[in-house]
Each structure stands twice: as structure tokens, then as C-alpha cells.
Amino acid sequence: MTETNALEESDPAGPLPDRSPAEAADLSHVWVVAAEVEVTPKIAKTADYRGSFKASEGQRIDALEVYCKGCRRPYDEVTGQDCSAKVDNRHLIGGDQSTRAKRKIPVPPRNARVVPGGRIQRRGIEAYVGGVSRPAR
Fold first, then answer.
1. Other C-beta atoms within 10 Å of 126: how many?
2. Helix, strand or coil for residue 136?
3. How far apart are CA 21 and CA 115, in angstroms?
4. pLDDT (tens digit, 9 = 90+) per residue, 71-103?
5. Which helix (H) or strand (E) holds 65?
6. What number is the average pLDDT over the span 32-41?
7. What are φ and ψ of residue 114, in 5° steps?
8. Chain centroid to CA 76: how far?
9. Is the per-residue pLDDT at 131 higher than 70?
10. For residue 27, what are the contacts with CB-CB under 8 A and spacing of at least 6?
């Protein structure tokens, strides 16, 4: 038995599959269009309720903006490049969280005085009567 056969037999996951260029990760953009569509009052009501509507055939739709659904960047800025959200989407959360500066707590004015408030009851009948657990009218 050769050394390579012994390694393949002892590997619990088995040999790694060879990745061909066709099976490589798809890093292309998914383009979407922000549009302006003129509709009737009936369709507007339906669209407001359902969040969608059907446009009529042959209707002209004005495109306001074309951008990538993943990285949210305009078409003309990133056309021909890989989608950065599929590579690494840290840019969507404000950069690398380990190096980003923390929020600064504002310093109160010199003549300000902190006055402790009363205790708010958030459970039980006291909370219900006080209006904490029910919606405001």
C-alpha cells in the first residue's frame, strides 16, 4: 500500500472534489431597476395593500435607477467587476467591526444634573393598568 492510498483511506471526509471553472462561485451582479409606473387608483390601492401589482402589456416604465441587488451599487460604477457582496459584504455593515471606532457617548453640559426617574412596572396588572403592555390609542 502506498502512502497516498493510506491517506485517502484514513480521511473520514473522503477525497476533496475537483472544482472546475464552471462550478466556481458565481460572483456576478443581480441587477434590479427602481422604476416609476403610472397606475390607476384601483391598481394603486391593490399595490399598497399587497405590495405588488400587474402591469399592463406594452406599458412604458421609466427606470429611475439601475443597481445591484446584492452590493447596492449603481450599474455604471461596478459594471464588469465582481459583486463585492458575494466576495465580502463587510462594506454593508460599516466596514470591519473589529477596527471600527465605537460610538462616543455625548458629554452632558457642565450645569446639567442627572435626576433619577421613578420605577416603571413592566409586568403584571400594574403594567396593564399603566398602559405599558397595550398599544397607545
1. 11
2. coil
3. 66
4. 888 999 988 888 877 877 676 676 677 776 778
5. strand 62-68
6. 91
7. -85, 120
8. 22
9. no
10. 82, 83, 86, 87
